[in-house]
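Morning run. Coffee first, then this:
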Amino acid sequence: MDDIRVEAMADRLVRGVVDSSFHQPSVKALLAEMQGLAAEDRRRVVEVFADRYRTGSDTEPVRVKLLTLTAMVGRGLVGLPLAEERAARLEVLGRAHTFWYVDRCESLAEAEEAAGRALSPAVIATVRRTAAGTYRDQELVRFAARFTEPVLNVGEAWAERAMEDEGRRELLAYALTAKAAKPSAAWEKGGRALVDGIGADAVREAVLPWLALVGRPRTFELEREVYEPDVNSAFDAYNANALRGLAWLLSLLPPHPDTVRALGALVETSLRKAAGLGPRNPKVANAAVNSLARMEGEAALAELARLATRVTYKGTLKLVEAALETRAAALGLSREEIEELAAPAYGLTQVGKAEFRLGEAIAQLEVRGIRAVLAWRNATGKQVKTAPATVRRDHTEELRELKGLTKDIDKSLSAQAERLDRQFLARRRWAYGPWRERYLDHPLVGTLARRLIWTVDGTAVCFADGALRTLAGAPLTEGAAVELWHPVGRRPAEVAAWREWLERHAVTQPFKQAHREVYLLTDAERTTRNYSNRFAAHILRQHQFNSLAAARGWSNRLRLCVDDSAPPATRELPQWGLRAEYWIEGEGQDYGIDTTEAGTYLRLRTDQVRFYPIDAPRNRAGTYGGRYAMWPVPGRRRTVDPLPLKRIPELVLSEVMRDVDLFVGVASVGNDPTWSDGGPQGRFREYWNSYGFGELNQSAETRRVLLERLVPRLAIADRCTVEGRFLHVRGELHTYKIHLGSGNILMTPNDQYLCIVPGGSGGGGSGGSGAPDTGYLPFEGDRTLAVILSKAMLLAKDTEITDPTITSQLRR
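And here it is:
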């Protein structure tokens, strides 16, 4: 073939690839024709590609395609040109998450192999991840399947640790075959044979340390484009199959607390969100849930119950719920009863207490508030701060178990507190005997239940001095029906009396109950009749709002800055036959300023709260904004009117409004001390000022009433007064006004704004010396209250502040 024809064919092929792709039929036909040429002619074609590459006049994507064409046409030829350039390109490929399948980057890899050079594990990992991706190009899949080593992809800490154990390669290889939603009978049979051959204990001892490393930062970073999601926080798609398989294999082992703990942690780690991606890998989380559901014993059931309070990803939560419902049906119990029975004791022998002997030392475990605390006594009976040296030396495994137990208790206490907080709307009523066993006297749950107010046959009681007691202090030892006390409908004098009772007995409630905000119907809501504007026109951080909504049992979809529609945030209340809606819309239109790189709105603007029958058609509105409208349901009326607010039970109205107040109080940009400039282009300056220093909402009003009682007991009481919307603090340099709603600060003279960011060295309360002791608080969980008290402690001694970000403002 003459040179002119060779150059013409080469030029046609390059233009075809550049204008379309390697996968276009015309390009594939021309490429096949050229690959069928004699070796001498193919070498001449390859040289044409190489000469064009060396001119450097093409764009980078075209130059990459020239390298690929060199490899594809020159396959099998000795001494191909551009060897160093191809090797450099492969090094870049090894730092990529995936490549676009139409670019045929695997051809470069094949050429490298044909030249006798082994591909790096990083390149193999990229090829595998791409083959496991969305497009599923079969040629690429077949090419990736050629690599059996390394057994897993490098780059993840858990995988590299697992591959260090040569004796467990068979285990990893079998785990990689887990590619379905659930293990088949054949897969399970093979898994049991594998476990029997290795030994159940050996499998557990190998796998659990690997799972403990899941989610750790990658051992080397992958490069990504600005618009791509955070692939470095995602799970490697190829290794994820192995994680699913390992989770399935653990369900075949005899029940063990460590296994349950590891699977629960894997669920939460897998659902942790990555920017632009969402949950890291729901499939791995689902595999772990399925394994927990298949396991016998109280520990697995307790872990499922805990996950039901923690998981917010709908697909995985549905699996958790189904597992609990299945267990409930098998035992002939309600879902609520299953959750109660699932509460573990964790070795506690009394309510909130246990002792463990390790050699001659004794570990004393005690629940204080919502945390488990370990104390030690040595062989002589003397109290010591940490585990004695003999325990650390001779009882390593038992000590590790004990530390794991305290962490489990902390997690479970948080979950149980959230479950109890949800009982107000659950309309639960217990028979006295089962309630006493499952709540008041339960070794774990009792530490929470004994700090709550209950009604026994209508009489309000709380636990003190070893017994349930009325307000007057009379003991109550029996009854028939028990309910959780709520301040709605109670006389103000009774509520105030219970608050005083709690203070007198130094009871810190696990969440607000006696001090719980009550939201009654307002005159404005009687005027609007069937909707409330009480929490409209706020600007909220969308992702924080979404997390809070999920934690409180609301359903919500993240708004994207695209032409789409979405329902409002909703909470279904099946016990009442109602559905609550909070209408929201995306705020702003500027990509990258009002949105994330993936196009998700950073902020929301809020609107009405409405109530509908639970089976009413759904409302939807454009994610850009616009009016909500009902979408029709086949066979039913097109629309259903919202219910008049006066028909909503007082308890339901109060609890729903309390949720919405929480969303605004936590997620509003108005309580962000760094937003004094009004945010992007200063658009929210007016809102920030009105929220950050304006009238108090209901939760802030509750905070004001509480502070009036707490301030006189503080060590800085002589420097503090509560006046209107502010806690006034007199320092040596200035007098400060801390807003009781936002925690924002104004200082003399002229009400200058003082920015102190909570959580920093200046916001911790001592300018670097740790958090202050604010004394007794009547309930857990009010972060804003803690921030206000912390700032007050800090500013009362403003001459001792060392944080330069604060002192520079104080000198102005």
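The chain is about 45% helix and 15% strand. Good start to the day.
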